[in-house]
Amino acid sequence: MSDYILEMNHITKEFSGVKALDDVNLKVKRGEIHGLCGENGAGKSTLMNVLSGVYPFGSYSGDIVYDGEVCKFHHIKDSEKKGIVIIHQELALSPLLSVAENVFIGNEQKMFKGVIDWTKTRARAQEMLAKVGLGNENVNVPVNSLGVGKQQLIEIAKAMAKKVELLILDEPTAALNDEESKQLLDIMLDLKKQGITCIIISHKLNELEYVCDGLTIIRDGHTIETLEKGVDEFTEDRVIKGMVGRELTNRYPAREGVEVKDVIFEVNNWNVFHPDDPERQVLKDININVRAGEVVGLAGLMGAGRTEFAMSVFGKSYGQKISGTVKINGKEVHLNSVTDAINSKLAYVSEDRKTYGLVLIDDIKHNMTMAALREYFSKNGVVNSNDEILAAEEYKKKINVKANSIEQPVGSLSGGNQQKVVLAKWMLTQPDVLILDEPTRGIDVGAKYEIYCVINDLAKAGKAVIVISSEMQEIIGTCDRVYVINDGEIAGELNKDEVSQEKIMQCIMSHNRRGEQ
Amino acid sequence: MEKKQVNLDMKQYGMFIVLIAVFLIFAVMTGGKNLSPANINNLILQNSYVVILATGMLLCVLTGNVDLGVGSVVALCGSVVGVLLIDFKVSKVVAIIVALLVGLLCGMFAGFFIAVMGVPPFIVTLATMLMGRGATYTILKAQTKGPFDGSYNYIGAGFLPKIAVGNFDLLCLIVAIIATVAIISGEIKGMATKKKYGFAQNPLWQTVIKDGIFILLVWFVLIKLGQYSGFPFVLVIMGCIVGIYHFITSQTVAGRQIYALGGNRKAAQLSGINTDRVFFWVYTNMGFLSGVAGIVLSARNGSATPKAGDQFEMDAIASCYLGGAAVAGGAGTIFGAVIGAFIMGILNNGMSLYGWSTDIQKIVKGAVLLGAVTVDLLSKRKKG
User: What whole-number distance in Å separates Cα of residue B372 and Cα of residue B369?
Assistant: First the structure.
């Protein structure tokens, strides 16, 4: 009988009726490094949030047994008291504070009530840094003067300062280069020797292969299987199969009677650097083309550079030192601003509709006409409100926005209807090329189907459509052709008849391997 | 075809009702003193510059910011007029043009730092507040410049030529009739458009009550003015400015860009709106209107004083929030800001007539502002 430090039994968690986790089981042995993998949206992060108390006891069903006792965490503090510390994908460091201050943030070394003991803070911070291989760092410099890799290690040092027993790392290497990743993984192995148990969430299967003793695969909110090093086959192919092995059901409307014509959108030799760091190249030599009436997918993992690509093309809304050419309808265009892009018949339906797409306090009508106002709904700067109302009514009917009236604030609509409003906003600019970034994220199956129908209609109308999605089935179900993007480069191009989830993952994995060599 | 009807959005008229209620309460408290023709005339003259500033301030508030430099720019423009008229003896037209240019330049100065350099508006306008006040004291050598010639003072304290019938000015009656016809025909035209396109109509009785109250108010004010000295020239300026800015905010692309920017800056940028340019013009415009207010104020006072316009920015900001503008930006109307300005004005005026000291007045004004915004936020939270 093995000694389990953590057993999560029959965990079920719902978000407004949708099961994010359904009867999930996870068992972690004391002192091991346990991997957790699955596609984007499979439920990994949700599971870890349940464990750490971000979703309090009572908001899920099932048991958490930690160190032999059933735990009911109501708050992150509760789980931290037990020695469970989670390090999220986004760093939780305060960039302008010193390393020492960050290590003890929320856990300050006090002299007496409320007064900080700086000597002790610095000395202990140094100690903690030594444990994560940063013994030579100055603890007094601001955290943002260090690289991302070191910042990630400081997160671990922060966890060590809390007397961690079970450390959870959510995609710790996503923002790191290979050397930094290797260093971090070695530190994990080191921590293991010190008796700390780790759970690591990662997409990079080669890394999991390198550090993990056990591996649990989650898919669609279910535990698929748990593999053990030395007992089970522990290869990438095996894991990929577990991650994606599912039959495609008929969730995608068939696209019929569409005539795919000439290439009307072409991007060549596209290079982009990070907006804050002119040395860091985010996109390398991207070449893509799309034909009229064609739907092309951009597949890849989160952070691969797909959104960055779309935004940099769309009027240089992202990045710096952008080079390359864009051709629309056979003519080279220079898109220096969003207005240029709109005038050149390019539309970008942004991801995260609430942050980038909509004015939530304004009504449906004004949101729909926001991008097309100058061009199609005004004369000499004066708005023609009657045309505006007519167009809004037309699109409300056309793409079935469920609302009482076009005067309703979009903030009160459901996610699916909000997404339709964003789509209408860009359809009203009468584009030839549309880039849809995560068009169905966070919306229900019915609304998804309707959005796919809209995509089909756009293709039928001879538009060139690009779909960016983290859901691979969606890409496979809706696209005629798929570019796989990984680490800022095109990792492969797949046609409708050859595309599958395994193929996409293989493209990514083999591209990762090439990168390492 | 089914007949579509929607109720009037009462929230839009809530503050209008508060305005009338406050006025009536003071009418009772002061035994009708605040209803006198002289007092109505005073209310308009006293609040004209706050109304002018509130229209400009609303644009800043729509972006989610404020302009703290307004009072100082008002004083600076007044001092420029003072020096030009008294020391350089230039004509009043030249003085007015130069003062407006100074206001415009102050606005462009703030707009440059906000839009081009990316400094937060709060900081930039805090700086222009200090710099403007300092410049005013320097120009005026800390002394009052005056008195101005009566023909300049006409702007702030004069009246349109009277068409006298006994003690009554017929001009006011004519304006009242024109306004009534304009309101009713505008409403009929609006209803016809709605019918033509099949848009939803408001129930007729609601429209009648809404327009009825509004027309009644117009007649009340104009008849009182007619009984006094006639139609104030300032009301012409005020009316034009309110009308123009109402049109800009509700009917033009530029206006809608301000709302979009205030509602969600990132979404506005990704919809092709040059948010920096919007910021620049909003603050430039605020400087220009501060210049207008500076001229009106100095004309009403007949002199330029270094302390002029002190805390006007606060009155203008409070007017916007009282008028229902959202603190985070993206929501608010010109009419709301005007009503807010008059609520503040009626409170001041009523309390003065009732004999409360300015100390108490400040406490009451503060409490009203806090109360109004709290009620607004709570009502939104219930809905949301």
Answer: 5
